[in-house]
Write the structure tokens for this entry.
Amino acid sequence: MNRRYFLGTIAMALSSGAAGAAAPDGKQPRAMVQRKIPASTNGESVPVIGMGTWNTFDVGGGATERAPLKKVLEVFYAAGARLIDSSPMYGNAEGVTGDLVQQLGKQSSTFFATKVWTSGRDKGLAQIDRSMRAMKTPRLDLLQIHNLLDWRTHAATLRQLKSDGKIRYAGVTHYTVGAHSEIESVLRAERFDFAQFNYSIGTRAAEQRLLPYCQEHGIGVLINRPFEEGALFTRVRDRKLPGYAKEIGCASWAQVFLKYIVSHPAVTCVIPATSRAEHMQDNLQAGFGPMPDAALRERMAKDFESSR
Ligand SMILES: NC(=O)c1ccc[n+]([C@@H]2O[C@H](COP(=O)([O-])OP(=O)(O)OC[C@H]3O[C@@H](n4cnc5c(N)ncnc54)[C@H](OP(=O)(O)O)[C@@H]3O)[C@@H](O)[C@H]2O)c1
């Protein structure tokens, strides 16, 4: 993406408000693709591109270190995105998110997802309370059990918090292929609204069982590590974009990687993390325009496989 295109699209995106972002041709504002939350009783949906905060939002209180993150969020909201994922495991990330969302006046439109990451009922409740205060929200949209830690205990807490109206949806997370079968077992044992796990064009294991399972059982899916923490970019460092990229409106590898993920019918939202506004703008474009069909997805995966 060249500088002119980036600045142009940011300006258009910022001026178009929450309803949509600039088209890559710079002409029409359009709406980002939305996905229904399967557990919603009123047809609630979320935009397919969300944002993670691990590492990227773990900064101190200084205005200089927070300014680039505020820009990231301005671009994010201007494109109509709204789901942000954090965790008490991510240092200051919940607090930085809460502060910046408040400064931008976006509390009511943000879909706040965070996690509980401790053992024991009382420690869990205390941590959830701290997360709500850090994120400056009286109610969390989604509370997930981080890495399935003490999940039986927290499942009971989450049920209670849901019935008290403190959280809207409950979920579980993990980030490795080795944990996929455990996630599936947990989903079979207990009803959760969402599951968050790793899936990318380079690591497609979730296609075997977890994604179909979630689709069949009406479980919303958040995808973490879509770029494998940036490692996918290294794999394609010396490669030009493949010819098919143009067909699906992708101007970068990031968009190819994200469109591959969000075009899977079980995926509700993908949560790439970035500390740079231009990368956020790049990533958001994957929520617009044509999506690859099953045949093209197969081609995309094979083509990527050949980059080893
Ligand atoms: N167990 C769990 O629950 C769990 C585990 C892992 C992750 N997660 C969640 O999932 C989120 C995403 O995963 P992740 O943070 O591990 O990794 P990721 O999103 O796969 O990759 C993030 C890396 O990609 C780079 N990047 C982002 N956009 C880019 C672009 N357009 N072009 C080039 N580089 C780009 C970022 O660098 P720049 O800052 O320079 O853009 C960063 O180094 C996390 O933040 C977290 O919220 C949850």
